[in-house]
């Protein structure tokens, strides 16, 4: 993500910032953001002190927004949020919309990283409105870049990829090379998250020479981290080890803690896969320490999993068991938090759409503003749709399904509400033998068949992978859930045509019904999931009730 400030290529800089006037110090701190965040922090603090001595509230706010960005890049999130907050106060006191937009953008970045995606979206939309009002097209595109990064963190990687591609194009048209560089780095992250490690690696190798030439150290560290991990995932272990070892010193030097942690984790796993467990251990232990210090839960989970394997190999069975238990506990916690965050994010999106329409009606002063606003409305409508739907099948996604299910259970009164959990049998074989494109085509066809067979008021969702869920409100009889499950099973047993070839699959279906199997969504889902696993263990291709 962009830390709330526009960066530029590095130029020759004085080493004694005290010789610079205040505007020159601000410009230098801005240039150093992705070149040397630690030095940028020192310059921004000096500019802050001088602005306070001069009683210059506007430049104090500008210095604080830059300070916040440097702290964000160094994973000092609490201090970064405080700096952005001081910048926001100064901007509002001075009536400077451009500075207010940058401060809100920075706050959005921080709280998004801390998991408050709904709050982040609110700040990003407010920042976008202010940027439009101030005629700051770069600010608007910067916000779009950060919204796309939120999609990435929520796992909506295909949507994030499309948005980042747009940012790359528009930033190029605006001549903003730093924003374009930031968006290209995010593109690489999107490809990696989508499992396209070859494309992520190709993009990293393409960007690295330019980043080195321009001395954009922060972008370079991120790029090197993903380059090393992509090599690891592609099985190029020697190349991964060499790339990561050469990249570690720069990450250490600029204090880029998040991606330093990622490098250490990837290097530890590389050593582990090469059978060098004694070399793997210290890197994984340090990765775990950094992840815990900076609340990087995903990397903490992965480090615990790898450490469990290392300690088992070294004969430390109590340590291996302890790490494995912590890994599984954190995995469950992350899953629950992700579902909750997506639900809150979707709810906030719907609420903010209404507020945005009301606010924008008062701001349609010129035809240019009207055109910009229309484009922004389209962007937000598309983002709202993507937040609720699976990009592959067009079905509801996990967060939207949960939100609708919880509302349905609250107002269901005396009528039963059914929940089906379907896991495809034989999908992995299709995916492995015919390829991912064939697997994606099959998933789309499965989704279409399920949607065609249920009632209008029923909701079909794809939480992920080869799993599907169906919400059945207002059932006449609890037994209807099982009957519908059998009907869907029969529909899926009919052959599919994939790449011109007949393909046969089946499904394991678990059914749960409220109120008899539980009144809360989480309980109902758990009971349906357990019933589905009983089908799996008893031969598959069947339906069981909770």
From TrEMBL:
The keyword Coiled coil applies. NCBIfam families: GGDEF. Residues 415-546 form the GGDEF domain. It holds the Pfam family TPR_10. The keyword Membrane does not apply. TPR repeats lie at residues 261-294. Gene3D superfamilies: 3.30.70.270, Tetratricopeptide repeat domain. Residues 352-379 form a coiled coil. InterPro entries: DGC-Regulatory_Protein, GGDEF_dom, Nucleotide_cyclase, Rev_trsase/Diguanyl_cyclase, TPR-like_helical_dom_sf, TPR_rpt. Keywords: Coiled coil, TPR repeat. This is Diguanylate cyclase.
């Amino acid at each position: 993500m962009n830390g709330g400030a526009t960066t530029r290529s590095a130029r020759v800089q004085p080493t004694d910032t005290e010789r610079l006037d205040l505007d020159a110090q601000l410009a230098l701190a801005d240039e150093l953001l992705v070149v040397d965040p630690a030095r940028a922090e020192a310059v921004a603090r000096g500019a802050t002190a001088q602005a306070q001595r001069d009683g210059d509230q506007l430049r104090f706010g500008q210095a604080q927004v830059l300070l916040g960005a440097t702290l964000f890049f160094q994973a000092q999130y609490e201090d970064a949020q405080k700096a952005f907050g001081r910048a926001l106060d100064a901007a509002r006191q001075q009536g400077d919309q451009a500075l207010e937009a940058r401060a809100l953008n920075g706050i959005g970045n921080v709280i998004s990283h801390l998991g408050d995606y709904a709050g982040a979206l609110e700040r990003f939309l407010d920042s976008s409105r202010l940027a439009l009002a101030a005629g700051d097209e770069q600010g608007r595109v910067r916000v779009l870049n950060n919204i796309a990064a939120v999609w990435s963190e929520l796992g909506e990687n295909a949507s994030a990829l499309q948005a980042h591609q747009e940012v790359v194009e528009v930033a190029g048209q605006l001549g903003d090379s730093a924003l374009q560089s930031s968006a290209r780095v995010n593109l690489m992250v999107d490809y990696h998250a989508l499992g396209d490690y070859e494309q992520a690696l190709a993009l990293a190798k393409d960007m690295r020479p330019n980043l080195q030439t321009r001395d954009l150290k922060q972008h370079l560290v991120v790029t090197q981290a993903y380059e090393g991990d992509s090599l690891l995932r592609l099985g190029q272990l020697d190349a991964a080890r060499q790339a990561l070892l050469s990249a570690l010193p720069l990450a250490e030097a600029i204090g880029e803690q998040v991606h330093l942690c990622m490098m250490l984790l990837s290097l530890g796993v590389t050593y582990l896969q090469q059978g060098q467990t004694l070399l793997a251990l210290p890197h994984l232990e340090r990765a775990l320490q950094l992840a815990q210090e900076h609340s990087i839960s995903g990397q903490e989970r992965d480090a615990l999993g790898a450490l469990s394997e290392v300690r088992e190999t070294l004969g430390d069975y109590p340590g291996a068991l302890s790490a494995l238990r912590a890994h599984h506990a954190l995995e469950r916690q992350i899953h629950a938090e992700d579902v909750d965050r997506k639900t809150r994010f979707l709810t906030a999106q719907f609420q903010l759409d209404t507020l945005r329409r009301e606010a924008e009606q008062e701001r349609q002063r010129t035809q240019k503003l009207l055109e910009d606003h229309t484009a922004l409305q389209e962007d937000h409508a598309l983002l709202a749709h993507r937040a609720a739907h699976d990009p592959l099948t067009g079905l509801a996604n996990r967060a939207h399904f949960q939100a609708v299910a919880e509302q349905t259970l609250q107002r269901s009164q005396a009528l039963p509400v059914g929940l089906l959990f379907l896991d495809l049998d034989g999908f992995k074989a299709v995916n492995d033998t015919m390829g991912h494109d064939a697997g994606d085509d099959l998933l789309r066809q499965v989704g279409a068949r399920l949607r065609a067979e249920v009632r209008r008021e029923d909701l079909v969702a794809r939480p992920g992978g080869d799993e599907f869920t169906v919400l059945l409100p207002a059932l006449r009889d609890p037994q209807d859930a099982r009957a519908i499950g059998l009907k869907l099973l029969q529909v899926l047993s009919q052959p599919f045509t994939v790449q011109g070839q007949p393909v046969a699959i089946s499904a394991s279906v678990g059914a749960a019904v409220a109120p008899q199997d539980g009144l809360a969504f989480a309980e109902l889902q758990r009971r349906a999931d357990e019933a589905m696993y009983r089908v799996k263990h008893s031969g598959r291709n069947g339906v069981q009730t909770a």
